[in-house]
Each structure stands twice: as C-alpha cells, then as structure tokens.
Amino acid sequence: MKFSCEKNLLIEAVTAVARAVPQKSAVQVLEGILLRCAKGKLSLTGYDLDIGIESSLEASVQEQGAVVLNARMLSEIVRKLPGSSVSVTCGEKNTVIIRSGASEFTLLGIPAEDYPQMPEVLAERTLEMSEAALKSTLRQTLFAVSDNENRPILTGSLFKVDKDVLTVVSVDGFRLAMRTETVKNPSMEQFSFVVPGKALAEVARLCGESDRAVYISLAKKYILFGFESVTLVSRLLEGEFIDYDSVIPKGEKVTALVDTALLTAAVERASLVVSEKIKNPVVFNFDFDSLKITTKSGVGSVYDELSVTLSGEPLEIGLNNSFMLDALRACDSETIEISMITSLSPIVITAPEQSKFLFLVVPMRYKTNE
Predict the structure, then answer these.
(1) Is 368 exposed, middle or buried (0-12, 13-18, 19+ CB in 10 A)?
(2) pLDDT range class, residue 370, cuts 50, 70, 90
C-alpha cells in the first residue's frame, strides 16, 4: 500500500472516525483505524461493534492496499507532522512508514483482514434532511435521553415518521423532549425506529450548520447517516418505546408567558445554592403578573422575581433545577409558554409562535413551610 494526501484532510478524517474507536478493548484491533486506498481514494474506518464511522478523501494512490493503525498513535502523529502533505507506505509484515517534510515515523500495523467488517445497510426506507435541521433537532432532544441501562429502549431517541414529518422523542422518566421537522420521505409511509443516544451524539458532532443533505438509510437492524464524505452506521435499539403521548398532560391548564433568557438567568442564579447531594427543588410561584423563584439549602437561599403573563389561577410548583435548565437552554424562542394543570402534574414548555418543540418536566415534591 502506498499513497499521499493533504495533511489537513487526513486530520479531519482521522478525527471523525476516531470517535467510533474504543479507548480500551479486549480486542486490540478495535483500538485501531482501518486505512484502505484504491483508485484515487483513501477511506478510514473506526468501529466499536455498535457504531461505525467511515470517512473518505482524495489521495494519490500508487499502490492499493489496507492496514490497521492504532487510532491514538495515528491521531497524534498526523497532528504533529510538519509538512502540508503526508505519504504513507505499508510494506512487508505490515510495517508502515509515514513521511511528511523531514519527519518520518515507522509503525507496526495490524493486518486489515483482522478488522471486523462493518454491517452493510441495505436500505428498506430512506429519509433526507439538511444538516442544520438534523443538528437542531438533536440539540433539542438528546439531553432527555436516559442513561439507565435497566430500560435500554429509553437510552435512545424515537424517530417517528408520518409522511413528510419526522418527530423525534427522548424520555428518561423525569422529562421528555420532542421535536418535529419536515423531511423528504420518498415512500410517504408511516414508520418508526429507535436510535441509540450514543450514536446520535456522534451524528450531532458530524452535522454542520449548512443546508447540505444528510441521507438516512434504514434497514431491519441498522441505520446509516450519510454525509458528504462521512458515513455513520449504528445498530438500532429493539423493543417498544414508551407511549409518550399519554404522559403529556391533557385538560384545562394554567399557562404563563415568560421571557426565555430572563427565566434561564434566574434559574441559573437559583442553581448556585442548590445542593447536588440533596437536590432541593427550585420553587416557582406563578402569580398573575409575576413569577417568584425561591430555593434554600444548607449553604444559603435565593429569591428572584420576574414578570409573566398568567392565564388561569396562581400556582406554585417545585422543579429540578438541572432538568429545567436543560429544557430552557434547548429553547430557540425568545418567549416560551409554560403550561400546568396542578402542582403535582408535569409542566409543558412550548413556544407560542411555533410548534416545533415540546419539553416536559416532572415536578418535585417539597414541604411548603421550608
């Protein structure tokens, strides 16, 4: 194997695929990146048996071939090479020589035949959306994915497709995040699937802010996200997702319109005295034209107040400060509407001028004389 390519392009590719390489593995080859070159292309692959990322770039290929190199070592080397281009040669016994400028490294590689093959995704259905739309959708839903392995299905996000509308839902038992977005769905069918949160976090990192298309290919057990020069393959989660619609409160509600930035800042101030061990609630007292925010802990107490527009009777509710902040920071609206039914039912956060997102937070019980 022998090729040369631009150093910056190689750095980008190594950085992308290294995200799928485990730091430590009982199988040594999985700690490496597979390099393959042929017909003017170099492809790099990282795969941990759950998530695989492949990146390709243009290269001057003198001799095609493949080899596996330790991901950490390769990443450190290419970042510190002095020249603008890199040449790589793999000779007998998988001895790899990397040259750039006056620098030369000699590494012992692993045979490419030892590297596990990434699953081939034979698409049964496809979707298409822009990178910016997918990135925004994931930003507003990933924070509510559960990390509790006792309910594996909730460690992923539900993707529910209805004709040309995609709804993404994450639930962890204490909060819910939901976002809708328009997509291209050639079949115009209804279907759903659950993608692991770990994979979606990597997809979000791969997404830019552009209108370039992301192609989503769905097979029976796997999903593929295709970008301009990078593809990510992940195993889907199996099982029945929670009936999320049933946990969204229905009935006559008390609603409060409030400035998003002002409320976020107030909750951030209240969080300064919240005990992480005891996790005392932040109390929100909604009055007709004001919202009083209070909390106390072993280190002190906080009182804050801001203006709101209330529809309905005054209501007081205790909430987890971290859950509330995650939802508020995910809002992309200057003004939000907070809907409540009782002090013990979940609150729902939406935007009055658009219906793309919905966040739900379960309240905390507290003693009113605290």
Answers:
(1) exposed
(2) very low
